[in-house]
Write a structure and sequence with these properties.
It is a single chain. By secondary structure, the chain is an alpha+beta fold. The N terminus is likely disordered.
Length: 168
């Protein structure tokens, strides 16, 4: 992804604005998505940190009303976190789920995707993680109007449990 043999470009020092620095330390961060560089300005000798990330593709989400907005990872995380409230699901599991959905989006989609497809992708991941969180998310996402909507969504889960139950 990043080439080590490329000549490293100098950054402008945030303190003295000189364009003369050296990289002291480089580390991969955010699960390999970014590089953190510790730099020292050769003019004022102060140190600062920079982050290098690949340029992100501009994925647009097409909402139900037809308007388009940039993909916002934090919106998916917020919705999943609410669905997982008071469930035995760690923040790490939530972050992994969101990262998987985001990865799938960027892997399969060129530039636009409708919000319904994104919601279905999240529900597929939640269904495998926690059935209660799945139903919570589905109830908001699919805008359940009454108890029959819940029963309709739960029926496949209940049928699956019955077919996998061991006889006594």
């Amino acid at each position: 992804m990043w080439s080590r043999d490329r000549k490293q470009e100098n950054m402008q020092c945030p303190f003295c604005c000189e364009d003369n620095d050296r990289v002291i330390d480089s580390r991969v961060v955010d699960d390999g998505v970014a590089i953190r560089r510790r730099r020292e300005c050769l003019s004022c000798r102060r140190r600062y940190t920079t982050y290098e990330r690949p340029e992100e593709l501009m994925l647009k989400i097409v909402k139900k009303n037809g308007c388009r907005e940039p993909f916002a990872r934090h919106k998916i995380r917020q919705g999943v976190a609410l669905a997982c409230w008071k469930r035995p699901i760690s923040d790490e599991q939530i972050d992994q789920l969101v990262a998987q959905v985001e990865s799938d989006l960027y892997e399969d989609i060129d530039s636009e995707i409708d919000s319904r497809t994104v919601g279905e992708m999240v529900m597929d991941q939640l269904r495998a993680l926690d059935q209660v969180a799945f139903v919570r998310f589905a109830s908001v996402y699919r805008d359940f109007k009454d108890v029959t909507d819940f029963v309709h969504e739960l029926q496949p889960i209940l049928n699956d449990r019955r077919t996998h139950r061991r006889p006594n």
